[in-house]
Each structure stands twice: as C-alpha cells, then as structure tokens.
Specification:
This protein has about 325 residues and is of the alpha/beta class. The chain is built from 13 helices and ten strands. Strand 2 (about 35-40) and strand 3 form a beta hairpin.
Amino acid sequence: MSDILTDGYVSADGHVVEPADLWTTRMDRRFRDRAPRIESRPEADYYVIDGLAPFAVGLEGVTMEDKIAGEITTVVGHRHAETRPGAWDPQARLADQQLDHLRAEMLYPGAFGLQFWTITDAEYQRECFRVYNDWLSEFCAAAPDRLLGAGLLPFRGPIAWACEEARRAADTGLRSLSIPADIADQSYADPEFIPLWETLQDLGLPVSIHSGTTTGEPFATKFERIGMGMGIVNTKISLPMNVLAGLIWGAVPQRYPRLRFVIVEGGIGWIASLLGLMDHWWTDHYRWMEPKLNELPSSYFRRQFWATFEDDRAG
C-alpha cells in the first residue's frame, strides 16, 4: 500500500479561511475599531472590510463542495462557523489532506485576504497584510513540509513597504510571495517596481499571482455589476492573460532572470494561444516592439513561469 505522505498529490492552489477574530484581536490598536471582521445578519454572515462594501460569506472556493452538492444554492445564506474547520485549524487541515490524498498544499488566502489589495488606506492595508502573514506563518509551522504559505505584499504606500514585508514574510518561513494580478492604471514594467523585483529576485521565492486579485474594483462588487459569468471570465482569464503578457512585454523576466512566477487559478488553456500571438509579433514586427526582448516571448514563459489549473480540458 502506498504512503500518502510520500506518494500523494501536491496541491498548487489550496486556500485557508481566516479566523473570524483574526484582525479584531491582532491589529494595532490604531486600527482595531476598523478591523476586518465577520458581521452576522439574520439572512447570512458578511465579510466587512473598512472602506469596502460588505460581501456575503460563501463566495470563497472553500465552500465549493457544498455548492456542487446543491447545499448552497444562493450567494447569500452561509455562516462562517459552518465552514470546514480545516480552513483555519492546521491539525484539522492535515486530517483533510489525508482524506484528499495530499502530501502538501500551497496555501492562499480566503475572501478576506484576496480583497485586501483593493483597500485604499495605505497604512491600514499594510497592517492587514502584516497580521495575515503572521497568522499564516503560525498555521504553516504546524507542518512546514505539508503546509506551504504564500505571503501577501502591500501595494499602497511606498514600494519600500512591499520590499520590507517580502523580507519579513520570508524570514517567517512562508514559501511564496504574492502580488496582485491587476494593478489598475499601473504597469509592472514601471520603474517604481524595480526595488521590488530586485528584492524578490534576491529572496529566491516564487512570485505568485492569484486570479481575481486587483488594486481596483473588488471582485465581489464587480460580480454584482457585470454578472457572475462575466466576472469569472474577467478574473479567471482576462486578468491572468494581461498580467502574463504585461510582465513579458515589459521585459521584467528578461531583466530579472532568476525570478519565478506562478499564475494561480487562471487556467492554462489560453496560454498557448497567447504565446503564439506574442511570438508572432516578436518575429514579424520586432522593430516596432518596445522594450526590445532578446528572446521569443514564449522562451521567457518556459523558463520562468508556471500556471495552475482546476478543471481545464482545453489546457
């Protein structure tokens, strides 16, 4: 009989759900009265983040098995306490790994953490990420070879804050560092990000980019505005495609050849088509392309990028 711990799968995209009282008990007292929290209402529980519209508990993927089984049939109606304990209890998570034949997981945040890049108050955002990264490192310390955490980097305020948090998160034992897929009216090729790329390259940890993460409009609000179907297309294909193309055309992997990027939960079926288009333009229209790339765009992808998928038959 095989041993799950040596022969099991490795999940490249697992998620935690943050404890309900995480920020209300751990944030600096300057922000405690504005701390992210769970608010219970008669019809459902809601995530409440200062400056953002409340959104219903149950949107996050950890409830997927209940959605597929038909136990959750509407967006509104779920309670935070009904979530599987392994979402925030590391020992329960290890037991869940046994059930799923997993020997390790790369862990990303729940609905709280995925929304934090949309916060506009720079100091408040920075503190939210600090608290999350500290908690996640403690969670993963229960089994550091099986619980692999991705730290989150603040993107408001000076870029030095992101560099400082990257170094701090790496020192706590986190195994990847996450940046948002969409940075609104900015580009990752902007000179402002040079110190961050230098820091991340020196640290040597993979840079993860999770689908749906943005410094712009929160995905919960966007889904209400454009509909769930178009929201999924936007978060699962458009944003990952744009950030991948932007990094390569912006010459970030060329300038920092030791950086490694992971496009998380964006699927893979679209990648071949995108790289084919990019290679065509590099080959046939090289004189017009700026900045100049020394190699085919697909060469940078094959050397420095990875991508995760859930159920992607085309890929």
